[in-house]
Design brief:
monooxygenase, Luciferase-like_sf, three-stranded mixed sheet, about 400 residues, monooxygenase activity, flavoprotein, TIM Barrel, alpha/beta, oxidoreductase, about 15% strand
Length: about 400
Amino acid sequence: MTNTHHDDFKKLSLPRDPQSYADSPLSRAFAQPLMLGLFLPLQTGGWSQSTLPRDTDWSYAYNARLTKKAEQLGFDVVFGLSQWLPKGGFGGQTKYRDNFLEPFVSTVALAAETRRILLLGTIHILYGPWHPMHLSRFLATADHLSGGRFGANIVTGYAENEPRMFGAKRLEHDLRYIQSEEFVSICNALWEGSDNLDFNGRFYSLEQAYITPRPCYGRPVLASASGSPAGFAYAAKYSDIVFVSSPAGERLDDALPKLPAHVSAVKDAAIAEGRQVRVIINPTIIVRDTSEEAQAYYQAIMDYADLEAIGSFSARHTAGDSKSWLEHTNRGRAVGGHIHIVGSPDEVVAQLIRLHATGIDGIQITFYDYEPELAYFGERVIPLLEQAGLRLPVPELD
């Protein structure tokens, strides 16, 4: 039995990281020089605030097709975003993000549709009645349903209005990470599960707590997203995958000089904890047969910007205390993504080589018109990534 008090959560027992198992799905993904992820459009408008016609859809059936195609193409992971919004989402002509499938539930469901790809669902652990007992059992169950392929993107929530939906006030930025540390430390102790757990902490108390079965590879995969020192310190201790934003807006040429120090801050913090993390970023990729075609499509997306929705999105972000997306332009938000990569297949690969050279370990891609653009990326870009040494060939599914 373990007895702890207050900040002694740091002394709680730890399970093995899934990357320490050579045969884990996470280790398989980490073997790729450049991990490929797909950011699923589980919400109205996906990631782009533009009215240019397209078929991108928030429905589960559409996202299941995307996930199965991504797996077929050898992608390593799919990811779901979480936000809590009032009626109409961000408004505008598109009613951007009005409909919003719960990413945790959706990615659990995708376990039955897939066999190899990692599945990550985002969870605001500080909203509502979440307790570490709930999440540890839910994630352990999802881990078994997926054969060790499931994980959680743990977020603390930056928005000023979201906590009020749950009858709460937003905690100060760094305090949210302190509470999250205690939360996830308890989950880790429950996943390690050597005995019943007694714990009396600053935020949570447990008596004779226990969950079973143990996860397949020590614990489920854990991810986090941040642009702040407090977020990076949390990620260094608890995350396998760390999602960062561009520190200099959406233009690749602006971001590249600042990314090495940004990425190193995360990785150095993990090394100080005796751990290794993989750092990923979200580019929106616009690729066509020629540079001229890609640039024309890129410009058309911006020309059709839903300025009302973008204004609402920007106002919400400004009212929050996020350290990410601080230098993105409104027209850039019409396209979406933290970085824009635009060009012919050869030009896109050249840009990804430059991005990888900053220390970025993977990309979590968004597209404008997802289904045809994902297929085109698989046909025209992935073979070039393999030729460039950024991707290892993935065996075809039986």
